Every structure is written in C-alpha cells, then in structure tokens.
Amino acid sequence: MPAGIDAVLLSHLHRDHADVPTLRRVEQHVPVIGPRGTRAALRRARRADVREVTVGDIVDIAPGLRVRAVPARHDSRRGIVGGAESEALGFVVEGGGARVYFAGDTDLFDGMTRIGDAALDVALLPVSGWGPSIGVGHMDPERAARAAALLRPRVAVPVHWATFLPAGLRRSHGHLLDRPGRAFAERVAELAPEVRTAVLAPGESLDLDPVEARSG
After folding, report:
1. Predicted confidence pLDDT, tens digits, the chain (216 residues)
2. Quick one: how far is CA 23 from the chain centroid?
3. Inter-CA distances, 86 with 51, 52, 89, 110, 179, Å
4. What's the CA gap between 97 and 157, in Å, rounded?
C-alpha cells in the first residue's frame, strides 16, 4: 500500500470501488470520504475516520487541502457493500495550487461543464468497465473524450481500465487491458486538442509541472 496517503475517496459503494480487505490495509488515521451509507458499509473494515458527504459538501483534509463532492451519473442503488441504498459521487480536490477532478464511475450528465468552469488542472476520467461490455452509467473512450472536451482540464488521465478482466476472457478480450486508454487519448486529440492526455500504467504517477509520468 503506498505511503503518504492523505485521504481515501470512495465515489460509490460497489464492491470494485469499496473493497473491505484493501481498506483494512490503509493506515487507520487516514480519513475515508464517501457517500451516505459509507460508515455502515465499511464496519468490517474497522476504519477510525469515515466522513459521509453528499453533493456540494466540502471536507477540509489538511491546511490547504480540501475535497468537494460533485454529481455523478451512475446507478449505485444495488449490489453495494453492506446492501444499503447510497448514491454515486465525483470529487474535486484542491491543494498545492492544483485542482483535480476525480469522476468516479459516471456517464456524461448535465452539469459536467460547470465542473470544468473551476479551471481544472487534471481530470481523472473512467474509460472502460471490468468486463467485455460497458453497462449504463459508464463511459467508453469516446464518451470520456467528449467529457474531456466539456471539462477542458489541462491534463486528462484515463482511469477504470487495465486492471480487472473476468477469468477466461484474456484470450478473447485481452485488448480491454490495453486499448481503452490509447483510444481515449486518440479521440481527445481530435475533440479537444488543447487538452493534454497522460495514459498511465498501473503503478505510474504524474508530475504536473512538468507533466510527465514516472514509475512508482
């Protein structure tokens, strides 16, 4: 587990985003910020600091570091950890002179442009799912590129890809672990050429100034 984590942001409580064994490995003093229902859902994770938020709420993590909850379009009412009803969120993180939008799981929605009005430095945008098809409430590379054009961040980073693939599908669908990120970057170059893209492999990180990826 990486060191120096300031907070854990849970966009919603589906099991591929709110994994209890993983959260147990995060140091206990690190706050977990998520939608209503997070505290009950993570009871088995034994988290000491869980902060539940809804759209518009702002949480101060440390001096000069704050998180604002923003809307997302994703059905999070069923199949969630703990079984309770909840909502899906995105987050805008401000700190160190940078403003980063983490979309969580979402599709395009009315109001996404207003998130971009905040002059984003980075937008983390989901570009795929975890199986051979993308269900309702997700974005594929094309729709994520359209989101980048609406948001107009300095840098767009594709996320939610290259990590999970159901057993037995690697031979027929192995391209899902490679293609979505590159397809997103190609489409952003066409729809929003002023937006730079950074396609990161799992374990890589991004320096904002200058913008470059480095292993870590």
Report:
1. 667 899 999 999 988 889 999 999 999 999 999 999 999 989 988 899 999 999 999 999 999 999 999 999 987 666 566 666 689 999 999 998 999 999 999 999 989 999 988 899 999 999 987 666 677 778 999 999 999 999 999 999 999 886 765 666 555 555 566 789 999 999 999 999 999 999 998 888 888 775 555 554
2. 16
3. 14, 11, 10, 20, 32
4. 19
What distance in Å separates the CA atoms of residue 59 and residue 177, rounded to the nearest whole number? 34
Distance (Å, rounded) from C-alpha 86 to C-alpha 14? 10
Closest CA to 10 of 95, 88, 70: 88
Query: 112 Cβ partners below 8 Å, 6+ apart?
Result: 147, 150, 151
DSSP 9-26: E-S--BTTTS-HHHHHTS
Give the closest residue to 184 by CA, choosing from 115, 126, 136: 126
Alpha-carbon Rg of the chain, whole angstroms? 17
* Predicted model pTM: 0.88
Residue 157's SS3 state is strand
Going from the C-alpha of 213 to that of each of 77, 116, 200, 202, 206, the distances in angstroms are: 36, 23, 7, 11, 5
CA–CA dist 45, 33 (Å, integer)? 14
- Helices 179-191 and 141-151, packing angle to 10 deg: 40
Report phi then psi at 89, rounded to 5: -135, 160
